[in-house]
Amino acid sequence: MIKALEYAISALEQLPAADQEQISRELIAHVQKLQSLRNMLDQGVESLDAGQGQTLDIEELIKRKNAGHVRG
User: Fold this and answer.
1) Concatenated DSSP letters for the chain?
2) Angle CA 26–30–12, to nearest 5
3) Do residues 23 and 15 touch, judged by C-beta distance below 8 A?
């Protein structure tokens, strides 16, 4: 375990049980989100490696994404 994580766990142990539980749940949720994002990235890379990628027109993408936003 890296030093920063060891320090964080040591500091966490000094908190009340309810705070420890809440922070632990938040940390687990964050780790799960990171794992999910990494899995999606791996799938994307595998897709590109398999030749399933498509050319992207970045200007068209920006126009589509901005179409729902009206500046006032």
Assistant:
1) --HHHHHHHHHHTTS-HHHHHHHHHHHHHHHHHHHHHHHHHHHHHHHHHTT------HHHHHHHHHTT----
2) 45
3) yes
Residue ranges of domains in the chain:
1-70
Evaluate if pTM is beyond 0.85.
Answer: no
Report how far residue 16's alpha carbon sits from residue 7's, in angstroms, rounded to the nearest whole number: 17
- Say how far apart CA 9 and CA 3 lie, in whole Å: 10
For the record, the structure tokens of 26 come out as: 């938040």
- What was the pLDDT predicted at 6? 95
Q: Which two tokens stand for residue 59?
A: 């200007």
